[in-house]
């Protein structure tokens, strides 16, 4: 027969093992939760790290237009010459500057080449690089 001390000691050991098992299961589930990658559906709604090429702010999936691996807000995706709204089917880009097809053709007809557009694009880039970000 077991003494009262042996009985209490065995109960203590069993309870300790049960606590250990429960805690280890909790820790395993927490580590699984922290290391698993989000699903495609979750990543669509959790936001994005893509920044708008025009304004530099976050472009969320419902409000973005992606063209030539650049993301834009729908409101930022407009002609740099006339400011008219453009779509992926009616735009032209030269040196990263967006134009509607109408203004792009018009600017070519003015000078007979795109050299003046390339110069203005490089000046815009230089001006943007010299302005410190807030």
Describe what this molecule looks like in 3D.
By secondary structure, this protein is mostly helical. The chain has a domain at 50-130: Cysteine Rich Protein (Ribbon), CATH 2.10.110.10. It has 4 helices and 4 strands; from the N terminus they run H-H-E-E-E-E-H-H. It has helices at residues 4-35, 40-45, 101-111, 115-130, and strands spanning 64-67, 70-73, 91-94, 97-100. The chain has a two-stranded antiparallel ribbon. The radius of gyration is 31 Å and the shape is rod-shaped. The N and C termini lie far apart (80 Å). The model has no long low-confidence stretch (mean pLDDT 78). The chain crosses the membrane at residues 12-33. Its main location: cytoplasm. Residues 50-110 form the LIM zinc-binding domain. InterPro entries: Znf_LIM (IPR001781). Keywords: Actin-binding, Cytoplasm, Cytoskeleton, LIM domain, Membrane, Metal-binding, Transmembrane, Transmembrane helix, Zinc.
What are the SSEs and their pairings?
Layout (H helix, E strand, L loop, with lengths): L3 H32 L4 H6 L18 E4 L2 E4 L17 E4 L2 E4 H11 L3 H16 L4
Antiparallel strand pairs: 1-2, 3-4
Give the name of the CATH superfamily of the domain at 50-130: Cysteine Rich Protein
Q: Would you list the SSEs in sequence order as H and E?
A: HHEEEEHH
| CATH architecture call of the domain at 50-130 | Ribbon
Question: What share of the residues lie within helices?
Answer: 40-55%
């Amino acid at each position: 027969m077991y003494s009262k001390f042996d009985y209490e000691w065995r109960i203590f050991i069993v309870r300790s093992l049960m606590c250990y098992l429960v805690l280890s299961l909790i820790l395993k589930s927490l580590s699984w939760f922290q290391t698993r990658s989000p699903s495609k559906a979750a990543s669509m709604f959790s936001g994005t790290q893509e920044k708008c090429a025009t304004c530099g702010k976050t472009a969320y999936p419902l409000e973005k237009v992606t063209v030539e691996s650049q993301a834009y807000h729908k409101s930022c995706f407009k002609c740099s010459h006339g400011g008219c709204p453009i779509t992926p089917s009616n735009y032209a880009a030269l040196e990263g500057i967006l134009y509607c097809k109408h203004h792009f053709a018009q600017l070519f007809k003015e000078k007979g080449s795109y050299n003046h557009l390339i110069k203005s694009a490089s000046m815009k880039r230089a001006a943007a690089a010299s302005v410190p970000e807030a």
